[in-house]
Amino acid sequence: MVKRVRIPTLERLDTSRFKLASFRNILLSPAVLILVATYFSYQGALWYFRNHIFWREPHGEFFNDEHVYDLGYSRERQRDAADFLAQAANDSASSPTHAYGPLLCAGIATVKRRTDYLNGTIGTMFATLTPEERGAMEVRLTFVSAHPEDHPDWDQGWLNLVDFHGGYNVTETEMEQLRTWEADDKWIQWKGVWDYTYLLLDCYERSNAPYIAVFEDDIIFAEGWMSKTLKALAELREMSIEWLYLRLFYTETFHVFWKKRDFFHHYRGVAHGTGAGATAFMLLLLRGCSRTVQRRIYNDASTTGRCWSSLALPVPKHSLKGTGLTRMDAACCTQALVFPRSQVLDVIDYLLERERGQTDLMIEKYADELGIARFAVEPQQVQHVGVKSSRGGSKKTVWAHLFETYNGEALREEHVRMAKGGRTWRPQDDGLSDVL
Ligand SMILES: *[C@@H]1O[C@H](CO)[C@@H](O)[C@H](O)[C@H]1NC(C)=O
Ligand SMILES: *[C@@H]1O[C@H](CO)[C@@H](O)[C@H](O)[C@H]1NC(C)=O
Ligand SMILES: *[C@@H]1O[C@H](CO)[C@@H](O)[C@H](O)[C@H]1NC(C)=O
């Protein structure tokens, strides 16, 4: 038989009963116990999220940069690269055959740095390519300095991997200008922009590849990067849309609001309020429905609700990962961009007209002004390993946060599968197979 609970009304309350002696009763009351339990489980969940799940997500509330820059997958790739380069240095006749003419001309500029990453860049770019993938690209490496022989890699044996390597090929007047720029760091933005256009033009003039890439010299390529790039290029061609570049590197750090995926993250204030309100409402409803529940749920319903809904909300925005070709109109950094040949001369003109600046911002501005679409391969195919020597301990670094978590074994299998899928897609041999 259910015992009916008598609810004290205000008149019936005997205030004399509230003495210090009843303090213990309050402490052990369900309301306080629930609050304490909520507090500890909430703190436990926060700790777990911060240390085990979401710590790599730079936008999340749980970001923890203590180990975010430790090399994981990149270290694995550096080992692949070292083995591959040792082999290549012995093998003097490794120049590639371009059966159909290259599909992608890749310009790389290198300068002497405090830490030299060029061997890793070239090594990871070439290691594990299939011969067909290798044949689809032409790599032009320029030592962008008036004294290229000062570069530690200037006469390395493995340079015979690339199709061209050497210093600037410029007129004496241009060389004079470059020397002036090199002499003082204040010209760095002028030289940066000029070098970028030099690489674009070098590929444009010396190669007939329909796609032109510019890569920096302090990056690491993931296995399968070339097959994914070719696949994305084939998809872009199918879409017949005007596009400015295909991005192989981006950092989650600089991602702004993406309407499609980040709705709740962007409006987290509203979402938080709604979550807390809904939970509190449900609890109050329950309390209204049944006397038994009524005794259990005290006035802390809304606090409890708020705590738990706030835990769900800071779940980071980039935890929804895409794969493959993705439109990405607002992203950062020029570590690895692929342009269609048809855009290259206009980009060069735009950059040279403005003379100086940060090349990545200038390219974004150019695209924004003309309203041209930009794309990326998701997840990143390139890591900016050079950030380790240039970062200043800030959260806003040019780093691919997920790259280090890649599984080398899985990527290898995926690469083999894609390479087996057929012949490399080439725009020249029309009528033949389109897909990789
Ligand atoms: C690149 O060269 C440096 C210095 O010689 C060496 O320590 C490093 O292991 C090399 N990296 C690769 C990937 O070969
Ligand atoms: C490269 O050649 C040298 C000397 O001929 C030899 O000692 C070395 O083992 C070779 N390395 C590889 C990776 O084949
Ligand atoms: C340098 O440029 C000139 C003129 O554009 C060209 O004829 C020559 O072949 C280039 N040299 C190299 C090594 O590319």
Automatic annotation (TrEMBL):
- The keyword Coiled coil is annotated on this UniProt entry: no
For this UniProt record, give its keywords in alphabetical order, as a comma-separated list. Answer: Membrane, Transmembrane, Transmembrane helix
Which Gene Ontology terms cover its molecular function? glycosyltransferase activity
An annotated GO BP: GPI anchor biosynthetic process
**InterPro entries listed in its UniProt record:** PGAP4
So where does this one cross the membrane?
Answer: 21-42
Q: Which GO terms describe its cellular component?
A: Golgi membrane
**CDD domains recorded for this chain?**
PGAP4-like_fungal
Q: What is the designated name of this protein?
A: Uncharacterized protein
* Organism listed in the record: Saxophila tyrrhenica
